[in-house]
Write a structure and sequence with these properties.
Blueprint lengths: L2 H7 L12 E4 L2 E7 L7 E5 L10 H9 L4 E5 L16 H15 L3 E6 L3 H11 L3 E5 L27 H8 L9 H4 L7 H8 L14 E6 L11 H9 L2 E5 L12 H16 L5
Parallel strand pairs: 3-4, 3-5, 5-6, 6-7, 7-8
Antiparallel strand pairs: 1-2, 2-4
Helix pairs in contact: 2-9, 3-4
C-alpha cells in the first residue's frame, strides 16, 4: 500500500460508530454523539443518498470532544433501517419523518443536511424553526433559478449502490489506489423516487419560511454533473445564508481524507452564531 492509500485508510474506518447509543424516534433511528449543553442547539446530521448515519462518525467524535450536542439520523430505508426501503419512498416522506423526529427529540437543533439529504433538511427547516441550517454539498431545491435537471431513472426497482470506481471519484475525489471496502460495506440501495425527486427538480422550498441563520459549504472537488459551478452559491443566495467554498474537499467531505477542514468550518460558524458573537 502506498502513502496516498494509507492516508485515506484511517478516514474510512467507521468501526467506532457501531458502539454509539441509538434511539428510535418517529420512524427514524437517532445516534447520539454528545448531549452537549442544554442552552446550546444540537447538531443533527442528515445523510444523503445511499448513506446512513454512519457517514457522520468522524463528525460525532469531533463535536462530542468539543462538548457540542450532536446526533446523526437514519431516515426510513437508510442505514440501519435499510430493510424498510421501497422504490416509492420519496423526499417528501423523508422530510415528514425528519420533522417528526426533530419534534420528538424535543430540543433546539441545527439541521445539517448532506447532498440529497439537504432537501429534507430544508423542508424540515420550514416547519420546525431550527436554530440554524448547514448544507454540505447540497442538492438544489427544484425552484432554484437555473437549477439543472438530470435524466430520470426507472422507478420500479431500487437503485444499486455505485461501484467502487464511482465511489472513489464521485464521493471521495480519490485515486484508483484507494480501497473503499469499508464504505461499500455500509452503503445501501437507494429509492429511485428519492433520486428522481432531486434529478427532476420536484421538491420546492420556500426561502421566506426559513428564518434561521445558516451556511452552505461547497465541495471544490465535487461531481460537476450534479453540482455545476455556481450552484451551491446560488443555493446560499436563494436561502439568504452564508456560503464558503472548501476547495480541497470531495463530495463526501465528512469522511474524506481531510474531513477535519469541513468540521472546522461548521465549528467556526457554530461558535459565531451560538458562542462568542452572533450571526
Amino acid at each position: 500500500m502506498d502513502h496516498s492509500t494509507q492516508q485515506f485508510a484511517h478516514h474510512l474506518d467507521f468501526s467506532g460508530f457501531d458502539t454509539r447509543p441509538a434511539t428510535n424516534l418517529a420512524g427514524c433511528r437517532v445516534y447520539t454523539g454528545c448531549e452537549g449543553l442544554p442552552d446550546r442547539p444540537a447538531l443533527v446530521f442528515v445523510p444523503g443518498g445511499y448513506h446512513g448515519a454512519w457517514c457522520f462518525s468522524h463528525y460525532l467524535d469531533y463535536f462530542s470532544q468539543r462538548h457540542i450536542g450532536c446526533y446523526a439520523v437514519d431516515l426510513p430505508g437508510h442505514g440501519s433501517l435499510a430493510d424498510e426501503m421501497t422504490p416509492d419512498i420519496g423526499l417528501e416522506f423523508l422530510a415528514d419523518r425528519l420533522i417528526a423526529c426533530i419534534e420528538a427529540l424535543g430540543r433546539p437543533v441545527v439541521l445539517v443536511g448532506h447532498s440529497v439529504g439537504a432537501i429534507p433538511a430544508m423542508l424540515a427547516a420550514m416547519i420546525v424553526n431550527p436554530q440554524g441550517l448547514v448544507l454540505l454539498a447540497p442538492s438544489p431545491p427544484g425552484n432554484l433559478p437555473g437549477a439543472r435537471a438530470l435524466p430520470a431513472l426507472p422507478e420500479d426497482t431500487l437503485r444499486a449502490v455505485p461501484d467502487p470506481d464511482e465511489v472513489r471519484w464521485r464521493f471521495l475525489g480519490a485515486t484508483d489506489e484507494l480501497r473503499v471496502e469499508n464504505v461499500m460495506a455500509r452503503m445501501r440501495a437507494e429509492s429511485p423516487r428519492v433520486l428522481n425527486d432531486r434529478y427532476t427538480l420536484r421538491m420546492q422550498v420556500d426561502p421566506d419560511r426559513i428564518v434561521c441563520p445558516g451556511i452552505c459549504l461547497e465541495a471544490g472537488r465535487d461531481d460537476l454533473e450534479r453540482h455545476p459551478a455556481g450552484q451551491d452559491l446560488a443555493i446560499a443566495r436563494f436561502l439568504g445564508i452564508d456560503y464558503e467554498l472548501l476547495e480541497a474537499q470531495p463530495h463526501c467531505m465528512m469522511y474524506g481524507a481531510d474531513w477535519q477542514e469541513s468540521a472546522e468550518a461548521i465549528l467556526v460558524w457554530y461558535q459565531r452564531c451560538f458562542g462568542v458573537g452572533h450571526c
